[in-house]
Write a structure and sequence with these properties.
The complex is a heterodimer of chains A (380) and B (523). Chain A is mostly helical. Chain A has one domain (40-113, 133-343): ABC transporter involved in vitamin B12 uptake, BtuC (Orthogonal Bundle), CATH 1.10.3470. Helix content of chain A is 67%, strand content 3%. Chain B contains 18 helices and 23 strands. The longest helix of chain B is centred in the middle third of the chain and has 16 residues, at 170-185. In chain B, 50% of the residues are buried. Chain B folds into two domains: 6-234, P-loop containing nucleotide triphosphate hydrolases (Rossmann fold), CATH 3.40.50.300; 251-485, P-loop containing nucleotide triphosphate hydrolases (Rossmann fold), CATH 3.40.50. Classes of the chains: A mainly alpha (380), B alpha/beta (523).
Chain lengths: 380, 523
């Protein structure tokens, strides 16, 4: 008979073994799923996890993509993880990401240079020798993106602290509001005036002062990656060295003890939601000015939701989040490969990502409980 | 001796790193009240859980009237005839008595019939209880009756009681004992777990004493002194708390007209609470659980805010100040609930030391934590208060109740408070640890601090406090000097009649009136 027995303290081994085992189980279950779809499971798994990094054919394109995809995931997940540690559940990073991108793009477009229309429209290189270099524009856009995400996250934060609403629901539902705003912007206020009526904003990658270009060619290294690295270091110091991070964890583990220790719950809600919103907004900014190049109706690619998986897979620990971010980036890239070479439906890869979270949550039980095989009779 | 009701032979249970029970053998006879004695962490709970089918022993066997008995789950134990009243009640406040009883039964009868059964059992055994009252409105003693009646409805042969009197007033204890003696008279057996040695000597005819998982003695507690029993339990000679006389000091903490609305429907509002504590003094606040103790501690710790002038520390009003402001000024608290309130269960002792010691011990500089110093502070607390643990990296929940309590109280005392407020400092703590904690509180007062001890343990309050007052339904009686206070007077203060008595201390007529007042209040 199987029985669960509570451990006297959480097992450190299992805390880190669970995500590894979850990945293995996801590969197995994913293989079954792909087989059911009539695909060769071994080939599909290999295509997702191996080929993007090591195949002659794909690696040259895929490897830089790893940084491009991992950076927003890590940046968002660090912010989410800090909140999750305090039991403050921001599920709406996707919405904050969208609003951040919109705000940053709006600032960029507000300063879009008046110049020869045809040159820009044709996508030709142009220089503005008349105007002095506006070095402050890019930092201003970062600030705008961060502020946008922050403000969007303040809606659930203030509703929670004032009216005790559930931040999970409010932040999640605000994602759909943000998506509508995104569509309205792409069709209306931010639409490219020279875009022949097509939805979508101007291409920001053609606007050097506002573009988030690769810093080192063919590496995928852009400013968003730099921001993600800073976020990881910041997250580590906050959680492990700073009193605020200690209070965050105390509030998450023992809310009554936290109040006794002088932590004000309302301020913590504002801090955690604000910080995660700010980071998600920044991720949106780096994405719209870089890899995505412009605001489109379906600009958001689900990073805000997948970052939740990244945060948990990385054990809400900054270093773990880096590893998990790369892994999830790999499933994105590999999933796309599998889509166009094997013809797997794009939903299959989302199911695959979702399975990973489910296996992880199930296995997490083992860090607090041990499974015991017990006989029916007491041994004499 | 005839065949025992339950014989336990060579029972062993190990947890990772701990031997909870090692080769324990004893027998409970029919119609016997059998005491199970031991320090916290001695293995009493494990043993009882094995009897009740909550855990399985690794080795050894149990015999029920000579037949092998190995319950895989509590319902099997109940079917055999074992019932248990837990130390912590599992009742739903928002449901009435009959509904709560029904929830704990394997196959409850219709609620109307059950209510009749409850009324029947409650009159049969002298446990007054109305089956239709909401549990949220009941006192701790009445809640315990719900649990006992739930057990009795199953007609058990063996009733296990875990620390049953720790939440009762002296009068309620007497009622309980009458019930237990009546049950014994019917030929039922009772396994009685307690730290209160006087009770065991008054009630039980056999005692089994455990120390660190092993059986150290079986004896007749009526033939042994409380001191002998305690020494068998602890293994060393006990030091009764002692201290020198004290001089009048300046008032350090003054509470004046403190009113506080209960935070929840089942909390207690504080009504016009006033008291003052001097330097060098211990003020004992008695009262049955749920009469405002938690709220009073929260108001003093700063978790709940009051009118600013309601609380003054050395003349400085801080009723609206937060916990950390109060700590900085020297008002420190240790709440009752160790896991989850005074300490974070899954955090290490180092982190728990940091939790309240951050400011006064200088463990944080510019917002950054000095982990080396935090660890050093935790180690100091562990060493000075004899906390038995492998080290400061162990999580709080891995410690036994008594050891964690020593850590939690020690953590505050080590910060040299001006005023220390403790709630239930020795709740669920073994005799040796309780003595150490009481001594530490008295030493603290001796060194010029003011100490407020909130407790339900009257013996404890009368042993350590200089003055005593009682909390009843959120009101605090006027404090009285402990010297010369009788148990009867204390009981009346707890019942809310104490003020009447202060007027004419020695007049027997007044006392009689006050008694009838208590009866009226209850009717």
């Amino acid at each position: 008979m199987l029985r669960l027995e509570r451990r006297p303290q959480p097992s450190r081994t299992w805390v880190w073994a669970a995500p590894v085992l979850a990945v293995v189980l996801t590969m197995l279950a994913g293989g079954v799923l792909f087989a059911a779809l009539g695909k060769d499971p071994v080939a599909a798994i290999r295509l997702i996890f191996w080929d993007p990094l090591f195949s002659q054919q794909f690696a040259a394109f895929s490897r830089p993509q790893l940084l491009v995809k991992a950076a927003p995931l890590i940046l968002i997940a660090i912010g989410l993880a800090i909140g999750f540690r305090a039991n403050i559940w921001n599920i709406g990073a996707e919405g904050q990401y969208i609003i951040g991108a919109l705000c940053a793009a709006a600032v960029a477009l507000a300063f879009f240079p008046a110049g020869p229309v045809d040159a820009r429209f044709l996508g030709l290189e142009f220089t503005m020798d008349s105007a002095p270099s506006r070095w402050w524009l890019f930092p201003l856009m970062i600030a705008a993106g961060a502020a946008g995400g922050f403000v969007w996250a303040m809606i659930p934060a203030i509703l929670k602290t004032r009216f005790n609403t559930n931040e999970i629901l409010v932040s999640l539902l605000l994602v759909y509001v943000a998506e509508k705003l995104l569509a309205a912007a792409a069709l209306g206020w931010l639409r490219n005036p020279e875009g022949a009526g097509f939805p979508g904003s101007r291409n920001l990658s053609r606007f050097p002062e506002a573009a988030n270009l690769e810093l080192i060619p063919n590496t995928g290294m852009h400013w968003g990656v730099v921001a993600a690295i800073i976020a990881v270091i910041f997250g580590y110091i906050l959680l492990h060295r700073h009193m605020l991070g200690f209070q965050v964890q105390l509030a998450g583990q023992a809310p009554r003890a936290a109040r006794f220790a002088g932590v004000a719950p309302a301020r913590l809600v504002i801090f955690c939601l604000g910080l995660s919103g700010l980071m998600a907004g920044m991720a949106g900014m780096f994405e719209v000015t870089g890899p995505a190049r412009m605001i489109t109706i379906d600009f958001n690619a689900g990073y805000g939701f997948v970052a939740i998986i990244v945060a948990f897979l990385g054990r809400l620990h900054p270093v773990g989040i880096v590893l998990a971010g790369f892994l999830m980036a790999l499933t994105y890239i590999g999933g796309e490969l599998a889509q166009f070479t094997l013809g797997l439906p794009s939903a299959a890869i989302q199911v695959f990502q979702g399975m990973l979270l489910f296996f992880l949550l199930a296995l997490d039980m083992l860090s607090n409980y041990r499974i015991r095989l017990t006989a029916r009779e007491v041994t004499p | 001796m005839s065949m025992p009701l339950l014989a336990i032979e060579g029972l062993t249970k190990t947890y990772p790193g701990v031997i909870a029970n090692q080769d324990v053998s004893f027998a409970i006879g029919e119609g016997e009240i059998h005491a199970l004695l031991g320090e916290n962490g001695a293995g009493k709970s494990t043993l009882v859980k094995a009897i009740y089918g909550l855990i399985r022993p690794d080795a050894g066997r149990m015999l029920w009237r000579g037949a092998p008995y190995a319950p895989a789950a509590p319902h099997e134990a109940r079917a055999t005839g074992v019932a248990m009243v837990f130390q912590h009640f599992s009742l739903f406040d928002a449901m009435d008595v009959a509904e709560n009883v029904a929830l704990g039964m394997d196959s409850p009868p219709p609620i109307r019939q059950l209510a009749a059964n409850i009324a029947q059992v409650s009159t049969d055994y002298g446990l007054p209880l109305d089956p239709h009252r909401l549990v949220g409105d009941l006192s701790a003693g009445e809640r315990q009756r719900v649990e006992i009646i739930r057990c009795l409805l199953q007609n058990p042969q063996l009733l296990i009681m875990d620390e049953p009197t720790s939440v009762l007033t002296p009068q309620e204890v007497e009622i309980l004992f009458q019930t237990l003696r009546k049950l014994r008279g019917e030929g039922r057996s009772i396994l009685y777990i307690s730290h209160k040695l006087d009770e065991i000597r008054a009630l039980c005819e056999t005692a089994t004493i455990l120390r660190r998982g092993k059986l150290v003695a079986s004896c007749d507690p009526r033939q042994s002194s409380a001191r002998d029993l305690a020494e068998m339990m602890v293994g060393t000679a006990l030091q009764p708390p002692e201290r020198a006389g004290r001089a009048e000091g300046a008032v350090l903490l003054q509470v004046e007209g403190l009113n506080l609305r209960a935070p929840s429907a089942f909390g207690t509002s504080l009504k016009d609470v006033s008291f003052a504590v001097q330097a060098g003094e211990i003020l004992g606040i008695g009262g049955v659980a749920g009469n405002g103790q938690d709220e009073l501690l929260a108001a003093l710790s700063g978790e709940m805010r009051a009118r600013n002038g309601a609380i003054t520390l050395e003349g400085r009003p801080l009723g609206r100040a937060g916990p950390n402001t109060r700590r900085a000024l020297g008002l420190l608290c240790a709440p009752e609930e160790r896991l989850g309130h005074a300490a974070a269960p899954d955090m290490s002792l180092t982190e728990n030391a940091l939790m309240t010691g951050a400011q006064r011990e200088g463990l944080v500089r510019g917002g950054f934590i000095d982990w080396t110093r935090a660890r050093g502070f935790a180690e100091q607390v562990i060493r000075r208060f004899d906390v038995r643990t492998p080290g400061p990296d162990v999580t709080a929940r891995a410690l036994s109740g008594g050891n964690l309590q020593k850590f939690v109280i020690g953590r505050e005392i080590m910060q040299r408070p001006r005023v220390l407020v403790v709630n239930q400092p020795t709740w669920g703590v073994d005799a040796a640890a309780a003595a150490a904690i009481r001594q530490a509180l008295m030493d603290l007062a001796q060194n010029g601090a003011a100490v407020v001890v909130i407790s339900q343990d009257l013996d404890e309050l009368l042993a350590v406090a200089d003055r005593f007052c009682a909390l009843n339904a959120g009101r605090l009686s006027a404090p009285r000097a402990v010297a010369g206070l009788s148990m009867e007077q204390v009981g009346l203060m707890l019942g809310g009649a104490g003020d009447m008595e202060v007027a004419a201390d020695n007049a027997a007529e007044t006392l009689a009136q006050a008694r009838s007042g208590v009866v009226h209040a209850e009717a």
